Automatic annotation (TrEMBL):
Protein species of origin: Vibrio maritimus
Identification of the protein by name: Transcriptional regulator
PROSITE patterns, per the entry: HTH_LYSR (PS50931)
Alphabetically ordered keywords of this record: DNA-binding, Transcription, Transcription regulation
GO annotation terms (biological process): DNA-templated transcription
Length: 294
């Protein structure tokens, strides 16, 4: 069994590019990780890591060894999960970063349902739009919307979010109703994170329309309130409007041109180093939203 010692620590260092970061992932001291990796290198008789004052990288031999070792770690984790999946009692704190109306109105209630199943589990949801450092900030996973950058993070789709445009009757009475996206140049638009709006015609994407207006906010509730107050036309994922379209509080506009929008995602660092509570919460959310409709 001695030959297996240090492999988990080595894989963690390889994937987090540092001994301190690996120690945080594994919940142990940096000295322990360094010691275990050094002993592993002594046993295999080759340097697996190239160490510098700024970062740690794999040697050529380390890269080959890592490709084999990561499969061992994955296999061991999967075996342990299958063995204990029927007898897990979750505890500790699940930390989630989220942003937007979808997370507030749909993801948060779903996580409340999940938490009620495990009386010893605590949940912390931090609503913000900033990029999080999963290791430094202690975040298990994040809920994000839109196109994701290729950051090396793992992303699992929750739902597709088709778009809708709307305005208050007061605004339309005063400024008229646009009948084509090109008419938005003569209108005040309420801008969220993007001032280039993407519409479709008969299922095909049109050229993005650049819009401007008197109100801009990264908070959907503030956008909806400004829209109700007659400050302009809003273009958001349909679910962000809640029941305001069905109730007549806001009137749909440009409906033949609404775009398919983007998706909401669960984003996290690495499945192998997620605590069980995070993996189970992610699986719960994916299943919960598997048949969700706008």
């Amino acid at each position: 069994m001695e030959s297996f010692e240090g492999i988990n620590e080595f894989v963690a260092v390889a994937e987090s590019h540092g001994f301190s970061a690996a120690a945080k992932l594994l919940g142990c001291s940096t000295s322990h990780v360094s010691r275990q990796v050094s002993r592993l290198e002594e046993r295999v008789g080759v340097a697996l890591l190239a160490r510098s004052t700024r970062m740690v990288s794999l040697t050529d031999a380390g890269q080959v060894y890592y490709q084999q070792c990561k499969e061992l770690v994955i296999g061991l984790q999967q075996a342990n999960e299958r063995l204990s999946s029927q007898q897990i009692e979750l505890s500790g704190t699940l930390r989630v970063s989220a942003a937007g109306a979808f997370a507030e109105n749909y993801v948060a209630p779903a996580l409340m349902t999940f938490a009620k199943q495990y009386p010893d589990l605590s949940v912390e949801m931090d609503f913000n739009t900033r990029m999080v450092n999963f290791i430094e900030d202690g975040v298990d996973f994040a809920i994000r919307y839109g196109r994701l950058s290729d950051s090396g993070l793992v992303a699992r789709k929750l739902v597709d979010r088709p778009m809708a445009a709307a305005a208050s009757q007061r605004y339309l009475d005063q400024f008229g109703e646009p009948t084509h996206p090109n008419h938005l140049a003569q209108h005040s638009c309420i801008i969220a994170n993007n001032d280039h709006w993407q519409f479709e015609k008969e299922g095909k994407s049109m050229s993005a329309i650049r819009v401007s207006g008197r109100w801009r906010s990264n908070n959907s509730n503030a956008i909806l309130q400004a829209c109700e107050e007659g400050l302009g036309i809003a273009y958001l994922p349909r679910s962000s409007f809640g029941n305001k379209l069905a109730s007549g509080t806001l009137k749909p506009v440009l409906e033949p041109f609404w775009g398919k929008g983007s998706s909401s995602w669960i984003v996290y660092q690495n499945r192998r180093f997620l605590p069980v509570r995070a993996r189970m919460a992610i699986d719960f959310l994916v299943k919960h939203f598997s048949d969700w409709q706008e």
